[in-house]
Design goal:
Organism: Ohtaekwangia koreensis
Mean pLDDT: 93
Keywords: DNA-binding
GO molecular function: DNA binding
Protein name: Winged helix DNA-binding domain-containing protein
CATH topology: Arc Repressor Mutant, subunit A
Pfam families: HTH_34 (PF13601)
Distance between the termini: 15 Å
Number of domains: 1
Order of helices and strands: HEHHEEH
Radius of gyration: 15 Å
CATH superfamily: Winged helix-like DNA-binding domain superfamily/Winged helix DNA-binding domain
CATH architecture: Orthogonal Bundle
Low-confidence stretches: none
Structural class: alpha+beta
Helix content: 40-55%
Length: 99
């Protein structure tokens, strides 16, 4: 029997990355400051996890200016959406196997 833990996505095993993806999968997009506040993390901590997700092409980033202030918005990519679903399916398989 195959170990369901093998199907977990290493990138999404970190709690903050999983939270970021959870927020993005249920919203059309989210701004950096709102995400930081919602997850209660520091700028640096959020930025490092965002970079990891961006490196995997799980999210896309758009930068603009609002009232002359920089505004960064994140969206989940199709690749990210698929990876997130696959990770949740693997978690579900782990739970079912324990019953």
């Amino acid at each position: 029997m195959k170990n369901p833990f093998d199907n977990l996505d290493k990138v999404l095993e970190h709690r903050i990355r999983l939270q970021i993806m959870s927020v993005l999968v249920t919203n059309d997009g989210f701004e950096f400051s709102a995400l930081k506040e919602m997850l209660n993390v520091t700028d640096g901590n959020l930025a490092s996890h965002i970079k990891a997700l961006e490196r995997e092409k799980y999210i896309s980033i758009s930068k603009s200016f609002v009232d002359r202030k920089p505004n960064t918005k994140y969206k989940i990519s199709e690749r990210g959406r698929n990876a997130f679903k696959k990770h949740l399916d693997a978690l579900e398989a782990v739970v079912k196997q324990q019953k």
